[in-house]
Design a protein that fits this description.
disordered N terminus, Nucleotidyltransferase, domain 5, single chain, 7 helices, 3 strands
Length: 164
């Protein structure tokens, strides 16, 4: 099973349409595992919203099995094909850490200057490169946290003595 990290795309409508269509089309064809942090409440709904706003059709991505064990379902809670680390690590509530908090506590670099709350302002000011850099860094942080989580769960063939 391939794994892709879910991240948002550019706020420019035309560019967003092309990238969203390409990304969702590739997801529908390849059926990789998606891994994110708060991706069930943020990244996946945002991708779907952008697709709907842009009039895209992605039946392969949206296809759901009749029974949970019969196929790939990115929208089902607890699906192996969409792992939301926030749900796995913290559930929901006051004790749920932000990505930056859990990453830095685990020795993984967290946010550097920009966070999600400033993306709209960056987009309005035309600072698309900063948004891309923020998303790339966020994806890398999520990947490193996923590796740490896989190590904790004894997944992906990590030897017991290795430290991610």
């Amino acid at each position: 099973m391939q794994t892709w990290l879910a991240k948002q795309f550019s706020c420019r409508r035309g560019l967003s349409r092309v990238r969203s269509n390409r990304f969702l089309s590739r997801l529908g064809a390849a059926h990789p595992q998606l891994v994110g942090y708060n991706s069930s409440s943020a990244d996946l709904p945002i991708l779907c919203q952008r697709a709907i706003v842009n009039g895209l059709r992605q039946p392969e991505f949206c296809k759901r099995p009749e029974k949970p064990w019969q196929g790939i379902d990115y929208f089902a809670k607890g699906s192996d094909y969409h792992v939301d680390l926030k749900e796995l690590i913290g559930a929901w509530g006051k004790g749920t850490p932000k990505l930056h908090e859990i990453a830095t506590a685990a020795g993984i670099p967290g946010k550097l200057g920009t966070d999600g709350s400033s993306v709209v302002d960056l987009c309005a000011a035309g600072h698309i490169r900063e948004i891309v850099q923020y998303n790339e860094y966020d994806a890398l942080t999520t990947y490193l946290l996923w590796l740490r989580t896989a190590h904790f769960c004894a997944k992906a063939g990590f030897p017991a003595s290795s430290v991610v």
